[in-house]
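ligand=magnesium ion
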Amino acid sequence: MKLPKGPEQIIFELQKAGYEAFAVGGCVRDSLLGREPSDWDLCTSALPMQIKAVFEGRLRQRDTGLAHGTVTLLAPDGPVEVTTYRKDGKYTDHRRPDTVMLGVPLKEDLARRDFTINAMAMAPGETIRDPFGGKQDLEKRLIRCVGDPEQRFSEDALRILRALRFASQLDFTIDPATMKAARACAPLLANVARERVFQEMDKLLKGSGAGRVLAEGGDILAQVIPQVGRAQGFDLKSPMHDRDLWQHTAAAVGQAAAVREVRWALLLHDLAKPDCFAVDKKGVGHAPEHGQLGSQMAEEILRGLRAPNRLIGPVRLLVRYHDFPLAVKEQSVRRWLARLGPDLLEDLVEVKRADLWAHANRPEVKRRIAQLEEFQHLARTVVESNPCLRLEDMAVNGRDLIRAGICRPGPVTGRMLRRLLSEVIEGRAENDRRQLLALAKKFSREAEEQNRS
Ligand code: ATP
Ligand code: MG
């Protein structure tokens, strides 16, 4: 196992000073899996003041986590967190320990960690410390709590979402006893800060096992997004669907490219369906306007989870339009490009594609997928031709219109420009200076005549 220079050096220095020191947690898990660890956390038998003394005058230090036993050392290749072996005291708020105890043996430090695969420690040239069978669970691709799962989840309910998140990220299954406890403890998720829920959901959605984890974890997710609860078992009463609303949603997420906006949009795309649902005379279900209502619901849910605006904006649009037909015509492509821009339009196509794949396997669905691919192809060709889609792209601007004596300065100029742009997007005019000025003259003459009559 190869450690980067910084953490390796820190381990050696601590060992030289007579302490134990190991890389621990996520970085051990990831390197055993052959994945690049996102950061290297170290643990040591040295107390915080002893850690600080060892590196005094050698590495810059940050004391932000001192109360919990963590010293951050600023090694040349990046910061490394070094934490004293620690045992958690009692949990009363179902989220954080009331107290922590420093200076316990390594095994106790590993015992406080959430899952067996996260409870291993290693140091260069030494055997891996793995008292809870983490390595075996990695081989079995299993998420399993260290200790009694119900106790561990009721100590800290965030662990419930972490279990789902790791299952999705690593594409692992959750051990049955752990899953059972996660379900039983799910109501405790009410104690977890909304932004932490969002972070875990965000990682879950990006994972390669997201579809499967959502399909199995509906009961749990309903505790953080109540609309998931009513989607479970909701019969869409349609020959186009062979799954209930929640299973359709999970399948759609699982089908989609791992693009953040796309996956969030698919999670939320149909959650308003039960509010708009009606069954026609033939017994077929319809949910008109569910995109409109759904986009408001998506925004509320994301705001509630304190999601960033740069996610909320695109997701709202993707949900809003996920059910709109995309006609394979240049004019329609230009309209969509003007509305969403090229990147978000690609995302919309992906949302629609994954949504369709999660429908019943019928010729009608196949036909719509093929049509969507044609639309995508056409859209890419149109984008390459660098079409005029925004006021800034136009061959005339407000000053041109004023100088030519067509418009007076003021809102009338902006209105004229937008009208000209729409003529270009609709394919009724070229983005050509002379043509546009002539057209503007014509429009303004028509307006005058109308005023006179
Ligand atoms: P990531 O790749 O997302 O960073 P990670 O496993 O490193 O995954 P962190 O949140 O960085 O996750 O936590 C580092 C380690 O601390 C974990 O591997 C685990 O051993 C322990 N840990 C983190 N959060 C908890 C928790 N809520 N309960 C118990 N142990 C935890
Ligand atoms: Mg980490």
